[in-house]
Amino acid sequence: MKKMQNNFIKKIIDKDLKNKKYLFVRTRFPPEPNGYLHIGHAKTICLNFGIAKNYNGYCNLRFDDTNPKKEKIEFITSIQKDIKWLGFKWHKEPRYTSNYFEKIYEYAIQLIKKNLAYVDLLTKKQIQEYRGTLTKTGKDSPYKNNTIKKNLYLFKKMKDGLFLPGKACLRAKIDMNSSRIVMRDPVLYRIIFKKKNQLTSNKWLIYPTYDFSHCISDSIEGITHSLCTLEFSDNKFLYDWILKKINVSNKPKQYEFSRLQLEYSILSKRKIQILIEKKIVKNWNDPRLATISGLRNRGYTASSIKNFCNKIGITKQESLIEFSFLESCIRKELNDIAPRIMAVLDPIKIIIENYPDNKTEKIRIPNHPKNPKMGFREIFFFKEIYIDRSDFSEREDKKYKRLTLNTKIRLRYAYVIQATKIKKDKNNNIISIYCKYDKNTLGRNPKNEKIKCILHWVSKKKSLKSKFFLYEKLFTIKNPELKKDFLSYINKNSIIVKNGLIDSYISKIPYNKNYQFERIGYFCIEKKNYNKKKWIFNRIVSLRKK
Ligand code: ATP
Ligand code: MG
């Protein structure tokens, strides 16, 4: 990947280092283990790990496991796999917010003792009502003035499971009239009963909120710059308030940048979960999702994703990134490195009448048009070959470059042919096209004649049956994330399956590569179904922007 682009966060860090505010840089990536990572996370990963690398510092991986109801070991495993696949290394072992629960609890006690936190017994609904709105100030809870002693007693009761969930919570004592709603006595601890917490062995019945645990975890880990997305801008004031009021020496600073939004995609984990539950996609790693594992299955490389993240840059500007921009990153990369091969997705038979019955011709061609280092391959020409059904038209049509009954076309790397007649079945479907070839046109064009186009082909004898999955966009609108009823905008044809043929040379190219199918697009082998007898491919991206 190219060097990390300059951005406003780098400028802040440069200044901090210059002023000796810090001698080193330490960042963290704090995913909630409630789903798989997506391309938005990739942006944040590239930033946090990229900054650490750029300044010779560290980046921690910290699982923000403060909501045991949504966490799963599967997510913890997949998150680590995806970060490694992207090519990043976290510092030492992964960390968990739950590692610090004991400490965080002590800080809560500290706040109560400083008369800066209280146990509230209002219901969730009442708390919401008392909080007010952007235009209406809040009002104090009747429990706000309980004594420190009473609060310590009630908090202990919460910890011991003597309150049911929702019956009590710990709140910071700040200001119910604050213009920032997050500062209106935010909740610091809530009660969650969960039979089995995989990470904390069911020890805790109370859990710190994101706001309370995040700044403390950052401080414990010695994080210098806590980077997050813009929706936490107001929370920064609470972040600073907490670190000021508890007794800690390390007080990291939070900086925000805009979230990645990608056209035609859903990135919210909660909504992806709905797509899975409704069986609209198969799983988190469905190739139609912009999850890291989905993109990997689709054939995207780690470097193309990193390049994409680097190119979109880090700003405070909210914008919806064009899906075609992501596509252009992988297309550009594969254009340089993908071996070429010919495949016909929807075959129609061509019989070359004047070609000798048993003749075979070997034609040596490059694997890449511009890179001879990628070697050469042989293709075989026979009397019977296949072209794509869409490359033939019964009617002459000047607009379309394809084979018709009156025009001459070139078969890629082979001869110029002309169609003479077609054969149809009972239902009027074309089953074969009869052609004549000009034997003097191998490698050169006939004199004074215009060749309409060059078509790709495979021969009957030297091709293998294959299945091709063509993925289209999952949504019919650019920004489904903004729609409450996003499920009404699903593209019902987001997978098109074609049964066709591929040049049998494919079996000689090492497995696990991406290929360019000439004139069609970039494809990769569907790994799950990989089996040399039955070739299955996923289309990564078509050749040109549609
Ligand atoms: P989601 O809404 O997708 O569930 P989240 O913010 O709840 O996202 P977390 O696992 O809590 O997901 O996020 C871990 C980190 O990744 C956070 O720092 C968060 O800001 C960042 N992140 C999440 N989504 C995006 C995005 N679309 N663009 C950039 N960063 C993101
Ligand atoms: Mg979250």
Distance between the termini: 27 Å
What coarse outline follows from CA principal-axis ratios? Answer: elongated
CATH class membership of the largest domain? Alpha Beta
Percent of residues in helices? 25-40%
Bound molecules: adenosine-5'-triphosphate, magnesium ion
Name of the CATH architecture of the largest domain:
3-Layer(aba) Sandwich
What do we call the CATH homologous superfamily of the largest domain? HUPs
Q: Please work out how many helical segments DSSP would assign.
A: 12
Uncertain parts:
none
Descriptors:
elongated, seven-stranded mixed β-sheet, 546 residues, alpha/beta, 12 helices, Rossmann fold, 2 domains, binds adenosine-5'-triphosphate, binds magnesium ion
Structural features, described:
The chain has 546 residues and is of the alpha/beta class. The chain has 2 domains: 8-257, Rossmann fold (3-Layer(aba) Sandwich), CATH 3.40.50; 340-542, Ribosomal Protein L25, Chain P (Beta Barrel), CATH 2.40.240. It is 25% helix and 24% strand. It is built from 12 helices and 27 strands. The strands form 7 sheets. The protein has a 7-stranded mixed sheet. A 7-stranded mixed sheet has the order 21-18-19-20-14-17-22, with no helix packed on it. Strands 4-5-6-7 form a 4-stranded antiparallel sheet. α2 (39-54) packs across α11, α7 crosses α8 (235-245) and α11 crosses α12 (323-337). The two termini are 27 Å apart. The structure holds adenosine-5'-triphosphate and magnesium ion (MG). Residues 30-32, 40-41, 43-44, 64, 228-229, 259-260, 267-269 line the site of adenosine-5'-triphosphate.
